[in-house]
Structures are given as C-alpha cells and as structure tokens.
Write a structure and sequence with these properties.
alpha/beta, Rossmann fold, six-stranded mixed β-sheet, 17 helices
Length: 391
C-alpha cells in the first residue's frame, strides 16, 4: 500500500465531521485507503447480500453494533441507511465516527443531500496521479508507457498487464454498473458509444455527432454520457467565460479521467503504438488535464478548471482560476520546445491585461520533454513534473 495524496485531506476532515464520504470510480483504491488510514475501525462491505438484508430488515439494530464508528463500504447499495446514520450522528456528533465509500456519485449525492447534508465531508479518490505512481517499486519508464498503463492501483501494485486488466474493467463496468443505473438493452451499442467517446477525448463535445455515429438519439447519448460522468470515467471541461469582448465557443471539451482506459478502448496496447498514433496529442492533453484535476481534488479543492476558445480559433488548453489569479497552460506532446507553443498564451495574456488588468496571470507550457526551462514570462514544465507543480 503506497501513501495516497488524499490521505492528508481525509485525516483533516475526520477531525472536523462526524461522517466522511469518499466517492470515486471502482478500483481507485477507496477501500484500501480507508482501512489503512483508520485501521482500528470495523470494516463492513455493503456489497454482500446478507449484509444488505441485515441493514434493510433492522437498520437500527445494525447500527447499534457500531456505536463507536465503522467503515461502510459501497454505501450506495443501501442508501436508506443514510437516514438512520443522520439520527445516530445527531444524537452523538463525535467527529470521525463513520467513514463511507461509494462508487456511484449520483446515488450518493441524492442520499447525502437528503440525509447527511452538513454532517459529512465529501471527498473524491481518483486513480493514481503520476506522483503517486512513482511510489511503486516499478514505474513506467517513459511518457507513453505511463499513458498506456493508466492509474488504476491494482495494475501497478500487482504488476498486471494494463491491456488485459483495462479490457476486463470495461467488461465489468458495462455488465454491472450500467445495468444497475440504466435499462440499456443493447450493451454493444453502449460499448460502441464508450469507444467513440475515447476517440473524442480532448475534443469539443458534440452530442449530436456522437449520437449519429453510434446510431442512437440525442437524448440517449446525453443520458449515457451522464452515466460515464457520474461513474468517473469522463468529465467535461467548460469554457472560461470571462468578459474579454470575444465571441466564445459554447461547447465544453470531453476528457477521460484515466487515459490508460481511453488507450485500451482505442486498441492502443503499447507505448510504441501510442507514439505514432494520430490521437497522441489529444491523449497527452487529457492526461495532463486529468493530472491537474486530481492534484486539486485530492487536496480537497474545487477543480475550477476551464479552457479558452474564441470564434476566431484562439485556444488555450487549460485555465485554472483561483480568485483573481489565472494559471494558463498550453499542452504539447512534443519533446522539443518550439516558438509556436507560446503564441496562444501571449495573445490570451494580452487580452486579459487589456480587459481585466487586476488579474494576475501565470503562463505555463507542459510538454513531452525531460527538462524544464523559463521562456520570457512563461514556465516550461516537463510532463514528469506536472503533478509536482503548484496548481
């Protein structure tokens, strides 16, 4: 078990709230993290059918066994337990009593808003960031090996073939989680939809095009995308809509949270294939955006991530907004820094200075090379240090 970046935030919240809820995709390491952080707490898996029956038949009696607290794993299996937890923690509001985990954010969100609002901290554990990945004895040796392997802990902890494990993960996800959430009659069409999304990572989201290519209607595409988002497979990166007197694109960008999963869906099974793949740049962009997303979420921060694109084609891949401070980043998979890496940053920086002079703007280029450098007012960061930088 390696140390996860979320652990510090988890311990801090356990000293402030009676309940801590950790969400995230399946196999991201939630159970391992909770049991390692709170080894003295009883652990109960709510995936087990007999445990679910015990909760539903006598919820008060079930909770009476754990008056001193416990870890309840996969709480979304019995969301009705939340109401009884509310009564329990209201009677004894001791901090750090109960730790809940769940893999389906939509089910948890509804139950929390109804029963545990104000009583629980809600944290998210995503797959491994690169800084976490480097804590394993064996680390992928190159950028493209890192992207292909992805960040699911079991792959690296047990030295499993990423291609095999990720293919099995997709099969399990489609057969189990999707059927629990949606009445998907044609799993093959959903799998096709998932692969089409992988082919559009780091691109503007066009639901109509996705629906047409998959042979489904627009509403179905919207519903299926929502399931992928709430299951932490993809996320939408919105446009930064500051007033710069520019006409902006309206569509968000689609990004995969785990690029290894996207590679698997695209049939990319080796670093050599990825190195020469036409989507190399898009996959690298999604990886960098995801790394920064993890960096902020695991620190307990709101993401506040955007991109910029106006109607004239000026685009900056990522903007992190924190109060009056903007960190603008261009993301390039090439290993050699060239002058065109800085053009969009310079133009956006000038526009912000003209229309929002009180803003503090930091400019960065993240690239596929090994050595960082400073170019005028822009910091150049190699891919291996993106998770170590302050975002």
């Amino acid at each position: 078990m390696i140390k996860r970046n979320l652990e510090q935030t988890l311990r801090s919240c356990a000293g402030q709230y009676p309940v801590i809820t950790i969400t995230g995709p399946r196999q991201s390491g939630k159970t391992t993290l909770c049991r390692a952080t709170f080894p003295d707490k009883p652990y109960v898996s709510l995936e087990l059918l007999d445990v679910q029956d015990a909760v539903r038949s006598d919820p008060r009696g079930f909770l009476a066994q754990y008056r001193s607290g416990a870890i309840f794993d996969e709480i979304q299996q019995v969301p009705e337990l939340m109401s009884y937890l509310q009564v329990e923690v209201d009677e004894r509001p001791e901090v750090g009593r109960f730790v809940l985990t769940g893999s389906q954010h939509f089910a948890l969100s509804e139950a929390i808003s109804q029963s545990l609002a104000g009583r629980t901290a809600v944290l998210t554990l995503l797959p491994l960031s690169y800084s976490e990945l480097t804590r394993f004895p064996t680390v992928p040796g190159s950028l493209f090996e890192t992207l292909c392997a992805g960040g699911y802990p079991r792959i690296h902890d047990q030295a499993i073939s990423p291609d095999r494990w990720l293919r099995d993960y997709v099969t399990t996800y489609v057969q189990r989680d999707v059927r629990q959430v949606l009445n998907v009659g044609d799993l093959q069409s959903f799998t096709t939809f998932l692969r089409l999304c992988a082919g559009r990572t780091a691109q503007l989201l066009n639901l109509s095009s996705l629906a047409d290519d998959c042979g489904i209607n627009h509403n179905t595409a919207r519903s299926w995308l929502s399931v992928l988002e709430t299951s932490y497979v993809v996320f939408r990166l919105p446009v930064w809509k500051a007033s710069l007197k520019k006409r902006l694109t309206k569509a968000p960008k689609l990004h995969f949270i785990d690029v290894g999963l996207a590679c698997s869906l695209l049939g990319i099974t080796s670093a050599e294939q990825l190195h020469h793949h036409p989507l190399r740049g898009a996959l690298f962009e999604s990886w960098v955006v995801s790394e920064i997303y993890k960096n902020r979420v695991h620190a307990g921060l709101s993401p506040h991530l955007f991109f910029y694109r106006d109607q004239k084609g000026l685009e900056v891949d990522l903007i992190v907004e924190e109060g009056d401070q903007l960190t603008c980043a261009e993301i390039k998979s090439g290993s050699t820094v060239t002058g065109d890496y800085f053009h969009a940053l310079a133009k956006l920086g000038a526009a912000v200075a003209k229309h929002q002079g009180d803003r503090q703007v930091f400019k960065r280029v993240i690239f596929g090379g090994k050595e960082g450098q400073k170019r005028h007012d822009t910091e150049v960061i190699p891919w291996s240090l993106v998770d170590s930088a302050s975002w």
